[in-house]
Each structure stands twice: as structure tokens, then as C-alpha cells.
Fold these 2 entries.
Entry 1:
Amino acid sequence: MKDKSMQFNTKTIHGGQKPDDAYGSVMPPIYQTSTYAQSTPGGHKGYEYSRSANPTRTALENSLASIENGNYGLAFASGLAAIDAVIKLLQPGDEVISTNDLYGGSYRLFTKIFENFGVKFHFVGMSETEKISEHINEKTRLIWVETPTNPMMNIIDIRKVAEIARDHNLLLAVDNTFATPYLQQPLDLGADLVMHSATKYLGGHSDVVLGALVVKDKELADKLYFIQNASGAVAGPMDSFLVLRGIKTLHIRMQRHSENGRAVAEYLAQHPAIEKVYWPGFEDHPNHDIARSQMKDFGGMISFVTKDNDFQKAIRIVESLKVFTLAESLGGVESLAGHPASMTHASIPKEVREKSGVVDSLIRLSVGIEDERDLIADLEQAIG
Ligand SMILES: *Cc1c(COP(=O)(O)O)cnc(C)c1O
């Protein structure tokens, strides 16, 4: 069966995959090797050195391309290594327009590393897409979108941003870590490039750190492949295997994450001690209609603030949780809770983070796939 005609729930299992040539193993072997025997100088079977390519990584890269409806996948040592490769497409003097409430590590990479090399970043609240155009000039090369945003769960209209990018001949990259291709397929909405921290939902089991890029265009893929090989932050074979295994259950995990996400969001919304719940599935979420139009469901990422907005009380809540684990990261089968102001977003200055809503009492949940009754009972005892 041709890949392009498969449904998503089949692609996660079969997309870009075939049994291994050597013995027909259904899962690709973990080719734990750095190099490959050659019969004569240059005479090899497509692999010569594992930074350049490795068969287990290739199997994952083909799967990534398939599930994101792209033509080329590239797997990196981490999500940030994947972002690093994208920004290396640029030259000193070039400018990037980026989502303002984005992953803290992306913000740090942009401002603390690449600004030193002369790349300029504008951080813009992109829920109002017209704000993007105000920052476009002849030096602009790239628009960097994260949607839903982290941790405020704003939704950015990918189709509209893609129109702006096309009109100005800019590259549009979407960090699709939160949504995953189960919920949202940015390349189909007009983006040029999709990025993932596969550490999160794609891997899905909190046992691996890995990053990914997927593109449609051959020329862009070639440039990124050159950077991947030249800079060297590639995914290892064992890690590639783990993510490939994770992807096979992505669709059923995301379905349950979304169901549990709804149950938890609705519970929190009616709780008297909770001021506000940020979850795009609510009809009164400011970008709910866009979320509906570009996402299949709303996922398991939820943020909320308490009525008193008390820093210490928020810390007490996350410390009292028993089923939810207090930890960085997200997207695993187990539920996690985090306190962005002191954890993931501590590297963003207080004035900057508060402007985008990351206040002292904000708590972010990655709702896992446990029984929703246990998750709600846990929140009940922790919030009081
Ligand atoms: C975790 C994360 C990253 C960074 O990925 P790593 O695999 O940790 O390097 C980038 N973007 C988002 C949205 C993330 O959640």
C-alpha cells in the first residue's frame, strides 16, 4: 500500500516502514555501529559512517516524514539540536519573527546563542496574525511558530501565517511538539518545516531525548541534511528505535490524552479555588474556532492559575500531587505537573514571562493516559 493513501492510524505503524532486508525482522534492528565495511573504496550499501546516516535512524526518519505528510525527515540528538539546525540556515544580519510565549529552551537558544552570531529575533504575540507583518522587513527570513503555545495554550492560525510567509517569501517553521501530527499537520496547512521534540509525545514514554524536522521540499531537505551532517548533532540508533516504537501507538495515546485532558480541564474550570484554566477545547477560549479548524482534538496540555495567584501555594499544590509527578517535560504516558515560573520558564526574565501570562501561580499539567478518576481525585486532594 502506498504511504500517501494510508490513514493516519495506519501510517503510525507502517508509514515509510518495511521489514528489514537481512532477516525480515519486523522492527528495524538497532544498528549500533559507527561504520560500515566497504568492498572497495566507496563500495558500500548506502551507509558509510553513522553521523552521515544509520539504518535505524533512516527508519525513524522515514516514519517521521510519513506521519507529518512530508517527504523528508531528519532525526537529531534533541529537539533543541533540531532547532539549532534550522537557525543555521540563516546568515548574520538575518531576522526571525518568533512566537512570544514559546518553549524556554528555544528562547534561550535564540537570544543567548544565535543573537551572538548576528541573527535578530522579534518575539510577537501571534494570536493576532496582523502583528507579524509589522515586523517584516527586507532582512526577515523565517517565521517561527509554536502552537498551542507553551505554557499559555494560545492558538496561532497556521494557515494565516503561511499566507503571510508566502506573500513575503519567508520560510515558515512550526514547532509541533504539543499537538503532534495526530492533532495537527502543519505542512498541510502551508508550513515549510515541522519541528518536534520527539522527547515528548512522539517518544511518549519519557525514556528518550530526540528531535526531528520534517519538510516537503527537496532543496530545503538537502540544506538541512548538510547542516545535520556538518554540525553532527544526530540521533543515536537506540534512541531512534525507541521513538520509532513510540510512534506506533501515537494515535491511541493522543486519543486518550485528549479525553483525559477534557475531563481534567472541565474539573478544574468548576473548582472554586481556580481562577482560570487555559485549554483550547473550551468554547470561550479566545482562539477556540481556530483550534477547531486546524486541530482534530485538543490534547492533554492544560495550564491554570489559582484565585490568590500565590507563588508558595502553587508550589505546595505541585508538591502535594501523588499521581501527577512533579517534573519538567511532557507528553509521556504518565501525568506530569510543572511550575513554569520556577522550572521550564525560569530562564525567561520575570517581566518578560509575566507579559505573556506566566504568572507566579501558573501550573502546567501534562495529562497522561491513566484513569481520569484517579487524576481528578489527585488534583482534588492537592488543591483542597
Ligand atoms: C521540550 C521542547 C523543546 C526542546 O526539545 P528537547 O528534546 O528537550 O531538546 C522544544 N519545543 C517544545 C515545545 C518543547 O516542549
Entry 2:
Amino acid sequence: MSRTTAPLGPAEIVVDLDAIRANAEVLREISGVPLIAVVKADGYGHGMVESARAARAGGAQWLATATVEEALVLREAGLDGPLLCWISSPEVTPGATYAAAVAAGIDLSAYSVAELDAIAAAADRAGRPARVQLKVDTGLTRGGIPRAAWPDVFARARAGEEAGQWQVTGIWSHLACADEPEHPANAEQEAVFDEAVALAEAHGLTSLMRHLANSAAAILRPSARYDAVRCGIALYGLDPAPGHTPDIGLVPAMTVRAPLMMVKDAHEGDAVSYGQHWVAERPTTLGLVPVGYGEGIPRSASRPGEPEAAARVGIGGRLRPIRGTVCMDQVVVDLDGDRPEIGTEVVVFGPRSAGGPTAQDWAQACGTINYEIVTRIGGRMSRTHVGLR
Ligand SMILES: *Cc1c(COP(=O)(O)O)cnc(C)c1O
């Protein structure tokens, strides 16, 4: 058990690394191909280095981050082995950062000829060949080599390989609608990806690792699995496609909990919190929980005017709805006449077994996705890792 952040408040995040390890095993088994464990954005709020170690323990052959800087932090923490990153640009990424990545044996994703030129300079500086993967745009229209530029970039990639500047190790793309398994964009993107792979082969770029699937596609779309799957959210035990994903035994790794700070009576007509948006229609008891948007609790969880839709927390094994506006430092919840002792554990969210709601329940109440709930959580809370020993 290790404390990684100094606590500034009484609430805490507990991350179960055994759950991450087990989720990695499940994803390897269900996909049948190597797992690329995505640990960007501080491991979706779970701790990047700790999550990476847990994923490796669960058999993840590859790790992946968004930025080059994140990948370098993993190397500094002693995480060896295949490691891919995908956010860099010759205009904004310092040459020294590219060179450090090449020296550290990190696979860089190339989006343009200009970026390949920058990687060539970095390989020169590092005194060893780089490792490059080609990221093609197949319909997400975010990053990736636009179709019109494929021939130029593939030709430059092959020339650099022949000149010993790098080894091209992979070709990959990213799906726009993987969480909607029936969406026609999935098959369209697969077809465009196949064209890109064929064109790369025609340019002499053979035996590339091909990967397209994120968590949703890894679980729901066998045709998108190719040579590896890049899983983030499912690694942390959350559902990548609510309403579509069968129960495959993923376990949410994050629990957020806090001690109950105060219990008070509310009388009929009492109005709660900023704006007085919730008014007691009958006498009840209210509890004060020391988490708010300063901890990353979305203010949208309040749902003014729709008390039945507000987010809930678990106290004493029952779900207790938030009443009134979420504040910076605290929320008020309805205890429905109960008077739990001060200090009673409040489960803000976690696995069902923790006795409260899930991050997915919060996402639904807040009109967002579970990714955003766990990635933004934090603020003053301590974060403790358990398991994996
Ligand atoms: C974040 C990300 C992933 C992981 O997606 P999940 O839905 O969390 O599995 C995979 N590939 C790319 C390019 C990403 O940006």
C-alpha cells in the first residue's frame, strides 16, 4: 500500500491494482491478441505508473500513452518493453524530447513527412535508429495521416527504413463509433484501414503490427482486433459501451470514499445549498459529505428540478441522493430519516461490491461518460494503491 499524494481533505481514492491486473487478463483472453494497455492521462485517474505495472502483471505485452512525455515517465519508472505514444508534432515537440524517446526505445507515431523528418533528426542525435508506427486517418478525422498524404508518408517511411533511420513497427488507426457496435462507420473504417495496410505493403512496409480496436471494439468487434487491441477504459474495469457490453467479469478498480461529516434534520420547506434549488417536501434527515467540484465531483450531478435523476452515494448499503447544488468542498445527501454515526463511510462510487453507485451511474446522472468521471476525479483527495504484492 503506497500513498502517492499528500491528502488535503478527508476524502480518498483507493485503486485496486489486482483489479487492473485481472482486467488485463480478461481482455487478453477475450480478444485472443496481444494487449496494448493504455495508461494515458495518469492512467485515467488511477495512477499511470502503478496502472502500467498492474497491466504488465496481467500480461499486457504493450503499454501506450498519449504524449511522448508520459512515455518517458514510464521509462524513468523502470517500465521496459514495448511502449507506444501518439501525441507529438515537429512544431511543438522539442527535438530533445524526440531524441530522448528514440534513446528510450519508445515507438513514436508519425502523422506526416515533417514528423518523420523530425524523427530522423532525433535518431541522428540519439545515435540509434528510431521505432516508428504509422497512424492513418480512416474516418475519425482527428489525428492521423490524411488519406491523400498516405503515398508520400509511406514512401518517406520506407526510404528512412532503408537508410537505417528507423524501423517501421506498426500501422494503426482509431475508431469513431466503437461504442455503437451497429454503427456503419465501424465497417467503413475497417475497410479504409485495410486499404492503408495494402498501400503500405505496396511501398515495401511489410510485417507491420496492425491495430485499430479500443476497448469497445476489442470486446464487441472481432473483425477489428487485427494484431493487437488498445484498451484503456476496460483495463480500469469500466464499461466502454454501456448497454452493449456483455458481462465479461471486468471489475472497477477505483473506489472514492469519504467520512460522513454531519447529520441534521430538515423540516418541510427547508431549502438546500446554493440557489435553494431543492426544497424538502416533508421532514427528513440530511448528511454532509466532504467532496465537491474541488475533488472533481461534477456540479452537473445536482440535476436541479429533477431530484430523481441526481447522482447518489452509498451510505450504510443504501443509495442516498444528492440534494441541491454540488459545492466546491461538499455535497448534501438525503438520509431519509436515518441517522448514521458521524464518520460512517460514504461510498461516492466504486465497484458494486463497495455498496455504492458506480462511476457509470455518475456518468449517467451527469450526462457524460464514465471516462470523464474517473479521469477528472482527484483534487484534494489522497490516492492509495492496494494489491499487487
Ligand atoms: C484513449 C485511446 C485508446 C483507449 O480507448 P478506450 O476506449 O479507453 O479503450 C485507444 N486508442 C487511442 C488512439 C486513444 O486515444
